[in-house]
Amino acid sequence: MLVGLDIGRQYIKIVAMNKTKDGYKLLDAGQRLVPEPNQAFDPDKIDTHHWVMAIKELLKQQNLNPKKIKLIATGISGASASVKQITTMEMPAEELESAMTFEARKHIPMDGTDAVIDYQILGSNEKEVDKIDVSLVACTKGVLTSHIDLLKESGLKPGVIDADPIAITNSFTYLKDMPSEGLAVILDIGALSSSLIVWGNGQQYFTRDLPIGGHQFVKEIVDKKDISYTEAQDILFKEGVASIIKNEANEDKTTLGVAERSVYDNLIEDLRRSLRFYAKQTGQSFFLKILLTGGAAGTPGLAGLISSKLNIDCDILNPFDGFDGADSLNQETPSQYVLAMGLCIRAGME
Ligand SMILES: Nc1ncnc2c1ncn2[C@@H]1O[C@H](COP(=O)(O)OP(=O)(O)OP(=O)(O)O)[C@@H](O)[C@H]1O
Ligand SMILES: [Mg+2]
Fold first, then answer.
1. Is pLDDT at 287 greater than 90 in this prediction?
2. Residue 215 CB–ligand 1 contact under 6 Å
3. How many Å lie between the centroid of ligand 2 and the Cα of residue 273?
């Protein structure tokens, strides 16, 4: 049994699969809250102990025996790791190693420990002679060590450790056929932040963390309606973006003042700016589609709002759609499992 374990800041998600002749068969998928249920989610109150407990409870809840796991894959979040495509001079392996370490230090939040890097030469750069494209993944030793310690404390053998944006991309490329031209945009909307990924065949890979997630969606309802966190969450899941943004026909009932920007406007503005940045850097702006993943992707009306504001098709990615073994699963928010599935697929590549 292969397992992908997504250790999110609000929910732990797990996907178990077996490798088959022509791919994978899904065995199980499940999730568990990290904080106490029926309380306001306060990210500052979550520590290692809560994650360890939640992982152990989730394994129990899903009836998964850690001893039966052949290989487990977990991820380091896009906020603590850096995934970059870099163009650099062609140079001997040893020099490249130190150049990449130097480069990595610029992109990760340093914490007094060394940078840990992993890189792959993609090939010669198309535009500049003597230059090569390299994909670089990096985090600090401190981040990696505490991640491994967390897994061990939870009774698991660390296995494969990937970077979250790469695992999400793996899930996507496994599930979807991409035309040879054009770019896919993936936005994983978690609890505290969102991971943006731009990917296309032979195109520059790009990822960035946007500081808005479902927790901010809930908090805006709490502030505007002066109600409790759990009540606000219920409203969000039922009414979605309409709980804050009323349609123009009922303008006098608008919860927000005209000049006030909603949390959704801010997220969409961040997205617009990032895509503009990508287009400027690469000269490519043929965005085929935006796919939403993560728990908050399911916010009613959000995909439609993004699509109408940015004028790009937007859909929610359901990783179970048509997947072997998915029929027997009953999952309320399939989009929440895209990362765990990508991690599981990664375990299968070993
Ligand atoms: N049906 C739903 N409609 C809207 N939002 C939802 C729904 N179900 C879950 N959410 C939201 O999804 C978020 C959790 O998603 P997810 O599990 O992807 O986050 P996480 O991985 O724990 O967080 P992060 O990625 O920031 O560490 C929460 O903010 C929750 O309110
Ligand atoms: Mg997440």
1. yes
2. yes
3. 22
pTM: 0.95
Q: Which domains does the chain have, with CATH numbers?
A: 178-316 (3.30.420.40)
Centre of ligand 1 from the C-alpha of residue 327, in Å: 23
Please write down the HEC assignment for all residues of 194-221: EEEEEECCCCCCEEEEECCCHHHHHHHH
294 lines ligand 1 (CB under 6 A): yes
Q: Is 191 in the pocket of ligand 1 (CB under 6 A)?
A: yes
Q: What residues sit around ligand 2, an ion, with C-beta below 5 angstroms?
A: 8, 190
Å from CA of 296 to ligand 1 middle: 4
From the CA of 58, how far away is ligand 2's center (Å)? 16
pLDDT tens digits, one per residue of 201-259: 989 999 999 999 999 999 999 999 999 999 999 999 999 999 987 654 455 555 666 56
